[in-house]
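Before going further, learn to read the protein records used in this course. A complete example follows; check for yourself that the lines match position by position.
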Amino acid sequence: MTIFSQNDINKVCFDQSTAKKIAADLVKGDSAKAELEKTKKLVFQLNEKIVEKDSVILFYIKKDTNYINQVKSYAEIKEKQSILVTGLEKDKDKLITENNNLKTGLKWVGGGFVGTLISLLTFALVK
């Protein structure tokens, strides 16, 4: 039973069951709006967490890449050091050989010098 007042246009009358249904629908609508706002807020917070998680993941990916590059650099340094050490060992062996040859030569020269000196002294004394 719907009644409309011709005198007062601000009032609309409904029977009790219809009014209860309208009130229940209004409450449900308000609840749905509140739930929608809460859901929007939760979705926003979830998106913020996803962005933060992605930035943390990206940070660790960059950090991992940096570690890999450092390991490669250390391996290259180690290889260059090994090459230098090998070259220095060869140079050392070569210098030791040259030093031994020089010592042998000096022994011969020294012996020759002493022999020559003795010969000269003997020759000088004989005359």
User: Anything to note?
Assistant: The chain has one helix and two strands. The mean pLDDT is 85. The CA atoms of residues 97 and 103 lie 10 Å apart. The longest strand covers residues 3-4.
